[in-house]
Design brief:
The structure is a homodimer.
Chain A lengths: L3 H12 L3 E5 L8 H7 L6 H20 L5 E5 H5 L2 H17 L3 E8 L3 H11 L3 E3 L2 E3 L6 E4 L5 H14 L2 E7 L6 H4 L2 E2 L2 E2 H13 L9 E7 L4 H10 L3 E5 L23 E5 L1 H4 L10 H20 L1
Chain lengths: ~300, ~300
C-alpha cells in the first residue's frame, strides 16, 4: 500500500483538485424542507436526528465528490450529539471511503502517550478487544495539537508508519486569537516556527516515494506571512489550509502556501459548501453544494497554477 | 445553583478528600475472571465489550466512592472503542453523577470558536436539536488545550458561567516531553507561565462565593518547580494535578501545589486505582481499588495538611 502522501498526490492529480469539503453540519442549519421530508413522527427525536444528519451529509458528499479530493469531518459537530453523532460519523466515514475520497478526522486530539495511543487506535490504527484487533474507523489522516510535545505525537506517527496514514499537526491556526500563544517570540522565532521545526523532525522518517512527508501541518489561510515561513520550514510536507471564505482567508493568497512544485497543500472549505443553498439555489442544496464546490475548486486551481 | 468551585469545595470538605479516580480503563486490563463472568457467547463482541466496560468501571466507582471527591473520564480510552465506548461513557457519567461525585471529562478539546462551541455544547452545555435544547452529558468540568488562544476557550467559559460548570486548561503537563514547547522562554518567562497568566484572565469573571475561580489549570505532579510558579500566578484557581504514581509524581510534593489555605488542588490517580488488583488482592479488584484509593487519599491528606 502507498504512503498517505503518495495516495494524496495520486488523488489530487486524478481529481485535478486540492479542495477538501469540511463536513461540519449542525442539524439546525439543514434546510427545513429536507428535515420535513425525513422526519418521522413515529420515531424518537434521536433516531430522526441520526437519519437526517446522515442523509443530508451523504448527499453533500455525493454532490461534491467530483470536485473535491477528500472530506474532513470536524469532530465537534458530531460530538455535540454525543454517541449518536459519533455513530453517524462512523457511517459517513465509511461512505466517503467507499467513494475513494481522502477522509480526514479533524479532532485536534492531544494527550500524554498512553492516552494519545488510545486516540490513534481509534482513528488511525486498531484497538485490542478480547485478544483481537478491531479497526473502528477508516480515516486516512487525523489532526493533532502539539502542546504536549513529542511523546504525545509519537503514537500517531507510529501508526502513520504502520498503517500508511497521515497526520496534520496544528502549527498556525486560522482563528482571530491564534496569535495569543502561536505568535509569541522564542528568542528570534515565533512559537509557531519552533512548532513547525518539530513537525519537520517528526515527519522525516515518513517520506513517500514522491518525496513528501506523511506528517503535515495545519496552517490557516488567514495567516499569509506565517504560511510563507512555514512553507520554508516544511518544504516537503502537506499543509492542510482551512479558513478560506467565511473566516476571511483569500483564495488568491494560496499561491504563497504551495511548494516549489505548485503542490503540497489541501484546502478546506466547510460552511461555503455544506450550507451553499443559502447563497445559491435555496430549494436545491445538492445542486448548490455542487456549484459551490466547483466554483471554489476552479478559483483555487486558478490561484495556484 | 452553586458555582463549580463552590460545589467542589463543598464535596472536598464532605469527603475529606481531594482525590479524583481516573477512569482510563482498557478492556485488555480487566481481570480475566471478571471478563469470563460477563462474557456471553450468544451476544456480539461489541455488546460484550459494552457490558464488561460498563460493569467493571461501575464497580470501580462503587468501590472508591467513599475515598474520592470525583471521577475523571479520560476520553481517549472510551473513544478507542468508537461510538460504542462513548455510549458506555455516557452511562458511567450518569452513574457517577447520581452518586453526587464531581464528574470531569478529560478530553483536552480545542478548536476555533464555532467548533469549540460544539464541544462545549456536548460536555458542559446543551445542543439545539429540532428547536429544542438537549443536554447530552452531565459533566461538571472539562479539560481544554490552550494552543488556539482566547477565542477557542471562550465558548467553554460562557457555558461555565451559564451552567455553573468548570474548566481546566492545560498549563504544564505531566509527560516527559512537556518541556518541548511549554518550557520555551518567552522573554523572561516560560511559555507555561504566559499560559497561566491567560488562564488567570480568562477565569477572573467566574469567581464563586468562596473566592475561587471556576477556571483552573492542569499541572502535572511531576512538575514541581512549575507547580510552585503556577500556584503564584493562579492564587485562587483549582489545579487539577495528574501524574502521581506510575508517571513518577510524588505525593510529598503536593504541599507545593496547594494554596495559602492548604486548598485549591484536586489530584488524579488512574492506573494505581483502576488496576489496583495487580498490586493488592488479585482475586478481588473491588477490594483492591478500595484499599488503593483509601491509601492514596490518606497519603495525600498527610502530605498537604
Amino acid at each position: 500500500m502507498l504512503n498517505f502522501s503518495d495516495r494524496l498526490i495520486e488523488s489530487i492529480k486524478k481529481k485535478n483538485s486540492v479542495l477538501i469539503a469540511g463536513i461540519d453540519t449542525s442539524i439546525e442549519n439543514i434546510p427545513d424542507y429536507f428535515i420535513k421530508r425525513f422526519y418521522d413522527k413515529e420515531k424518537s427525536e434521536i433516531d430522526n436526528l441520526k437519519t437526517i444528519l446522515f442523509e443530508y451529509n451523504r448527499r453533500i458528499i455525493d454532490a461534491v465528490e467530483e470536485n473535491v479530493v477528500g472530506v474532513k469531518f470536524q469532530a465537534a459537530f458530531f460530538e455535540q450529539y454525543s454517541y449518536h453523532g459519533f455513530e453517524v460519523l462512523h457511517k459517513l466515514c465509511e461512505y466517503a471511503k467507499n467513494k475513494k475520497l481522502v477522509v480526514i478526522f479533524d479532532g485536534k486530539r492531544n494527550d500524554i502517550s498512553s492516552s494519545a495511543k488510545g486516540y490513534s487506535n481509534a482513528y488511525l490504527g486498531e484497538t485490542p478487544v478480547f485478544g483481537k484487533k478491531i479497526r473502528f474507523f477508516e480515516f486516512d489522516a487525523i489532526t493533532t495539537n502539539p502542546y504536549l510535545g513529542q511523546d504525545g505525537i509519537k503514537p500517531f506517527i507510529e501508526d502513520c508508519e504502520r498503517f500508511k496514514k497521515g497526520l496534520f499537526v496544528l502549527v498556525k491556526t486560522s482563528n482571530p486569537s491564534s496569535g495569543d500563544f502561536q505568535d509569541l517570540m522564542v528568542e528570534d522565532k515565533y512559537l509557531f516556527e519552533v512548532v513547525a521545526e518539530k513537525v519537520y523532525e517528526w515527519g522525516k522518517n515518513c517520506i513517500g516515494k514522491e518525496g513528501y512527508s506523511d506528517v503535515g501541518a495545519v496552517v490557516g489561510a488567514t495567516q499569509l506571512e506565517a504560511g510563507k515561513r512555514i512553507r520554508e520550514i516544511l518544504p516537503n510536507s502537506f499543509l492542510l489550509v482551512p479558513g478560506i471564505g467565511v473566516q476571511g482567508g483569500k483564495v488568491e493568497d494560496l499561491k504563497y502556501f504551495v511548494d516549489s512544485n505548485n503542490m503540497g497543500i489541501i484546502v478546506n472549505s466547510s460552511r461555503d459548501i455544506i450550507y451553499a443553498y443559502k447563497n445559491y439555489v435555496h430549494s436545491d442544496f445538492e445542486k448548490s453544494s455542487y456549484l459551490a464546490s466547483k466554483s471554489i475548486k476552479e478559483s483555487i486551481n486558478a490561484a495556484i497554477s
